[in-house]
Amino acid sequence: MLLKTTIRFFFFLLLFGSTSRLNAQDYLPAVLVFQSGTQESGTVFYSKWGDTPQSFRFKKKDGTVQNVNRSQLKSIEFTRLDGLKERYVCAIVPVNRSPNALSALDADPAPRMQLDTVFLQVLIQAETSFFKLQQRNQLHLFIGSDSIRPLVYKRFVKDGVSSNKFMENNRFRQQLLALTVDCPQLQQRILKLSYNEKPIHKLLIDYLLCKKTKTDFLFKPEHIRPQIYVAAGIQYAAPGLIGFDGFYFFTYPSTVNWVPTIAAGLNLPIPYSKGGLWFVNELGLRKIDAQINYANRNGIWDWDLQATHLRLHSMIRWNVLKKERLFIQVGISNGFLLVNNSTEVRSSLGQTPVIKNVNIRSYQAGYAGGIGGTYKRFTLEARYDQNNSLNPGTSFRFSGSNVKTFGFTLGYRIR
């Protein structure tokens, strides 16, 4: 009954967490600079844009919410949940509006530049700044400070014949060669440079180092470190043993004891999730401490199950409500038998009790799920897992079995 209630509780929390996450407003601290020059602090709505955002939902300190767009703002800077700062500036710049999909490429190597007012993400702010605009699955890169210029790049097809093969207008290389003429050691790199954010970002950083130029702002691409942690708590491992008396199936009644447990784990961030998804690997101990009693006209059976497994959980963690650090995780469970001191005592009227060792399956597999929250370096979690048959051989009068484990752990992140 307890385990069934626990499972329902998990599903309720999963539903509640998912609904709360969809309804929650991920407002992050921000500083806005308006075109008039006035500055205002508050929070902005952030929802992991695929494209560079062109408007923001702004919540003032008094709680009122308004949408601010390009015509109102000069710049905006906010602090993400992973601690990184993002900065955007409003600029009127030429944007390449040439078709970019392979099936739509034309034969003209010259880009179709259109003047537009857009928010640009600041990647480097210095004497020579670097900006990015991501729109409609197309990347646009810009350089400059007082005057922001596009780095020109276009894909086109020869003779207007659309195919999987295309040609490139790499004029951006000439632009970068002209910019870095006073740092000749960078010239050879530019000749092989691709039109991507990371290689150009690194080149411009090296150029500023060559020039010994001060950097006012530097956006660091996402780099969330793996986490190593240890945990301790209590757990309840209940063996579910199903018997058959020749007429119907039944579950053996059992007494299960709460026992201490320890674990250690490694959390790996899933790329591009910005800390929202993690791959969790946890190695710990699961101890079965249960007593089972069964009687019929042939005698009385008393089983004392005392077994310890090395348990490996591999799960995907989803940070549902990042502000409250609530997470849900699900995955697979593997168990490897370390110690088995399980015994069976059979008693019959007028006979000496017979004591036998009970064989326990050396490997188990199943599923696991948990819900919890984090605060600074501490994690509190409730977890449930279910493994397959104990496979104890002929010692049990059974038709099936499994092990259902429920527990609470308190973890501490080492790094």
- Helix percent reads 10-25%
**CATH classification, class level of the largest domain:** Mainly Beta
Which value, in Å, is the CA radius of gyration?
A: 31 Å
Number of domains: 2
Q: Could you walk me through the main structural features you see in this protein, from its secondary elements to its overall organization?
A:
- This protein has 2 domains: 84-218, no CATH class; 223-413, Porin (Beta Barrel), CATH 2.40.160.
- It has helices at residues 2-23, 171-179, 187-191, 197-211; strands at 27-34, 39-45, 55-59, 65-69, 73-79, 85-96, 113-125, 129-135, 138-144, 148-150, 154-156, 167-169, 217-218, 227-244, 249-251, 254-256, 259-269, 277-296, 299-321, 326-340, 343-347, 354-357, 363-375, 378-387, 400-413.
- By secondary structure, it is mainly beta.
- The protein is 12% helix and 53% strand.
- The protein contains 4 helices and 25 strands.
Secondary-structure topology with pairs:
Blueprint lengths: L1 H22 L3 E8 L4 E7 L9 E5 L5 E5 L3 E7 L5 E12 L16 E13 L3 E7 L2 E7 L3 E3 L3 E3 L10 E3 L1 H9 L7 H5 L5 H15 L5 E2 L8 E18 L4 E3 L2 E3 L2 E11 L7 E20 L2 E23 L4 E15 L2 E5 L6 E4 L5 E13 L2 E10 L12 E14 L2
Antiparallel strand pairs: 1-2, 1-5, 2-3, 3-4, 5-6, 6-7, 7-8, 7-13, 8-9, 9-10, 11-12, 14-15, 14-17, 14-25, 16-18, 17-18, 18-19, 19-20, 19-21, 20-23, 21-22, 23-24, 24-25
Give a quick summary of the entry:
This protein is mostly beta strands. It has helices spanning 2-23, 171-179, 187-191, 197-211, and strands at 27-34, 39-45, 55-59, 65-69, 73-79, 85-96, 113-125, 129-135, 138-144, 148-150, 154-156, 167-169, 217-218, 227-244, 249-251, 254-256, 259-269, 277-296, 299-321, 326-340, 343-347, 354-357, 363-375, 378-387, 400-413.
